[in-house]
Amino acid sequence: MAGAAQTSKRTPPALKAAAVLLVVAVVLLGVWVTGALISDDMNVAMALTAVWFGIVGLACLLAVRARRDLLLPVLGTFVAAAVAIGGYLGYSSLVDQEVNETVAVGAPAGEAPQEPGAAAPAQNVQLATGGFESGAHETSGTAAVVELAEGGRVLTLTGFETDPGPDLRVYLATDRDASESEDLGALKGNVGDQQYELPEGADLDRLSTVVIWCRAFSVEFGSAALTE
C-alpha cells in the first residue's frame, strides 16, 4: 500500500515547469562559462563544454531516480537542450558557409586624376585597407573601408577565408583582442567576398582593426590592421 501511495504521487505542474527552466538555465550557464570564460582556446572550450554536458546529464539521471515523475521535464529537457546546443555548435564548427557578394571598390584616397579647375567626379574612395592575419584559426584575405559616392561607408572583405565556427561576428575594434569595438553583425560566411555597413561616426583612427570574433567561445579567429 505504501508503494502504491508513493507511485500515485503527482508533481504539481508549476514544479515541473520550474524544473524545465532550471535545467535549461544550468545547461546554458555552463556552456557560457566553459565556452566563453575559462579558456581562449576553442578546442579546450569545446572539450570543457562536453564535460559540462556529461556532469549535468549525470545529475539529471540521479534526480529522476528519486522522482520518476520528473523523468520527462528533467531528463527530456536536458536531452533536447544538449542535442540542440551540441548540434548547433558542431554544425557551425564543421560546415563552411560560402558567400559571393558584389562589394564596393574604391580608388585610394588622393589618387583620383582630375584636370585643373575641374570638379572631382563622384566616385567611391578607399579610405583604409589591411591584410588578415591568423588568430586562433588560419585566416586570410583583405579588409578595406570604402567611402561610397552616394554617401556612407562600408567594410569589405575580399579573398576572405577562415575556419567555420559558432556565432562568428565582425568587429571594428581598437585591437585584435576587441578591447573596445563596434559590432558590425554576424559574419555572413567564413569563405568569400562580403560587405558590411559602417555605423555613422565610427572613428577609424581609434577603431582601426577588423576582428573576426567567435562570441560563443570568446576567441579571435583572425584580424586585419587597417592603414590609410
In short:
By secondary structure, this protein is of the alpha+beta class.
Outline the structure in words.
With 228 residues, the chain is of the alpha+beta class. The protein contains 4 helices and 9 strands. Strands 1, 2, 3, 4, 5, 6, 7, 8 and 9 form a 9-stranded mixed beta sheet that branches. Helix 2 (13-37) packs antiparallel against helix 3, helix 2 packs parallel to helix 4 and helix 3 (42-66) packs antiparallel against helix 4 (71-94).
List keywords for this structure.
alpha+beta; 4 helices
SSE arrangement:
Blueprint: H1 2-7, H2 13-37, H3 42-66, H4 71-94, E1 107-108, E2 125-134, E3 140-147, E4 153-161, E5 168-173, E6 181-186, E7 194-197, E8 209-214, E9 219-225
Parallel strand pairs: 1-2
Antiparallel strand pairs: 2-3, 2-9, 3-4, 4-7, 5-6, 5-8, 8-9
Helix pairs in contact: 2-3, 2-4, 3-4
Specify the helix fraction band: 25-40%
What proportion strand?
Answer: 25-35%
Order of helices and strands: HHHHEEEEEEEEE
* Through-space gap between termini: 84 Å
Oligomer class? single chain
